[in-house]
Amino acid sequence: MTTRSEPSILHLDLDAFFAAVEQRDKPSLRGRPVIVGGLGPRGVVSTASYEARVFGVRSAMPMSEARARCRHAAFLARRFDAYRKVSTVVMDQLRALSPLVEPLSLDEAFVDLAAGEHPDLSPGGVRAVGERLRTTIHARTRITASVGAASSKTLAKIASEQAKPDGLMVIEPGTELDVLHPLGVRALPGVGPATAARVARLGVRTVGDLARIAEGELVDLLGEAHGRSLFRLAHGLDGRAVSSDRASKSISVEDTFDRDITDRALLAGLTRRLAEKVADRLVRSGHSARTITLKVRLHDFTTLSRSATLPGPTDDARSISRLAVQLLDEVDTAGGIRLLGVGVSGLSDWVQDDLFSAAEGSEQPPTDDADDADEGDEGDEGDDAGDLDAAVHSAGRWVPGMDVVHARLGPGWVWGSGLGRVTVRFETADTPPGPVRTFAADDPELSGVSHLQEAD
DNA sequence: TCTGGGGTCCTAGGACCC
DNA sequence: TCTGGGGTCCTAGGACCC
């Protein structure tokens, strides 16, 4: 648990990432408030540009509130394909610094510089590495990044947070507590609203306050694991290694509906569809799973889960689907459901086992399916996902922010749509702000180019 | 028109086993 | 014939993170 003597752990965080990519690709939005997130009636903010943050708009805020706070902002749907492309370039730059890179999300990662080839890991040497990295990333992506470096993960992350936006901070070994102790407890990773409220009852507001509390008292208040880890963090102790190969432990898909749903047949159909998506991702990841979990959020936002564990792992869509619908039967849905989710856990590396599929294959070719007695009466509804979508979501063909191309006018993006019309601004990352034109929504010369809804 | 979607880790209680 | 003590697995829920 020795804390290292050099600030060789680096943390990189792209600034207001989704909004920054939108401003890069939509020149007319540069310098203006941009809010990216779910545009439906129950959407929330994913990322607000710094111009929008001035109005108090924050991540995870309901879109309705964001609109009230900042009426003149541009409200855009997410374009994950674009974000993934930037992320790939950035992560490649990090891997050029060291083989030990731990991505935390599309826009954030730790790098252990000590595992790379860096002769000078003094604060000055690390500062040079960080500045060069920021410069390269901006040159390759036109996105700004903030970088923190310190002797531990926690401090490196705090440093990049302090450096934001578009900055660099290296915490010199020996000065960790000087940086840490004046900060509010919420600066520590793992301290959210609930933990902050608990320690506030002990009069604790800053990390320095926290460091004066005995370990036993924190354990009593917060539990064994959380209490001890917070105690250590408050004293600047964090020996966690940067880990580049963390196996995933669960896969899940969930959907919040535009309006609450009570219709049980519809809910069963949606559950099956979610289960199929999960199974598809499971298969594509080369895993199988033993535990299936159904998640249900009721009209009043109460969230329940029901799970079942199989004797052995599966990646079969029909098994997962059947189980998920069975779990749904245990839930009282009469009051209305706002969200359904299906997840799998207990993952094993198990690429479609030959023994099993050989044994089962002989007794279930697609035609003699009679053993699944209850599937016969759904053949007519299970085929049309579009109907399910229409029953549950109102999004049209043209979603604000999406990339389009016009046969004569070239590439642009959807500015807004409605009443049978769609308005497009014709500009790209490499043009000056461009002109706006309005078309009929079914104009044959206009077509979409990106897959907006393909989530991360 | 309050409150997304994808995850991780932890806890507590019961079953079960030695 | 008045109550052990671990350990593991499973389920449900909660806190937290981006």
Structure overview:
Helix 4 packs antiparallel against helix 5 (123-141) and helix 12 (264-285) runs antiparallel to helix 13 (317-329). Residues 357-382 and 452-456 have low confidence and may be disordered. This protein is an alpha+beta fold and 456 residues long. It is built from 15 helices and 17 strands. The two termini are 35 Å apart. It has 4 domains: 1-172, Reverse transcriptase/Diguanylate cyclase domain (Alpha-Beta Plaits), CATH 3.30.70.270; 181-234, DNA polymerase, domain 1 (Orthogonal Bundle), CATH 1.10.150; 250-391, DNA polymerase, Y-family, little finger domain (Dna Ligase, domain 1); 403-448. The protein has helices at residues 17-25, 50-53, 63-69, 80-97, 123-141, 153-163, 176-180, 193-200, 207-211, 215-222, 224-234, 264-285, 317-329, 354-361, 385-392; strands at residues 9-14, 34-37, 45-48, 74-76, 101-105, 108-112, 145-150, 168-170, 250-261, 287-298, 303-314, 337-349, 403-406, 410-418, 421-425, 436-440, 446-448. The strands form 4 sheets. A 5-stranded mixed beta sheet has the order 5-6-1-7-8. It binds a DNA duplex (18 and 18 nucleotides) through residues 17, 37-38, 40-46, 59-65, 67, 104-108, 189-195, 223-226, 248-256, 291, 293, 301, 303-309, 339, 341, 343, 455-456.
SSE layout:
Blueprint: E1 9-14, H1 17-25, E2 34-37, E3 45-48, H2 50-53, H3 63-69, E4 74-76, H4 80-97, E5 101-105, E6 108-112, H5 123-141, E7 145-150, H6 153-163, E8 168-170, H7 176-180, H8 193-200, H9 207-211, H10 215-222, H11 224-234, E9 250-261, H12 264-285, E10 287-298, E11 303-314, H13 317-329, E12 337-349, H14 354-361, H15 385-392, E13 403-406, E14 410-418, E15 421-425, E16 436-440, E17 446-448
Parallel strand pairs: 2-4, 7-8
Antiparallel strand pairs: 1-6, 1-7, 2-3, 5-6, 9-12, 10-11, 10-12, 13-14, 13-17, 14-15, 15-16
Helix pairs in contact: 4-5, 10-11, 12-13
This protein binds a DNA duplex (18 and 18 nucleotides) through residues 17, 37-38, 40-46, 59-65, 67, 104-108, 189-195, 223-226, 248-256, 291, 293, 301, 303-309, 339, 341, 343, 455-456.
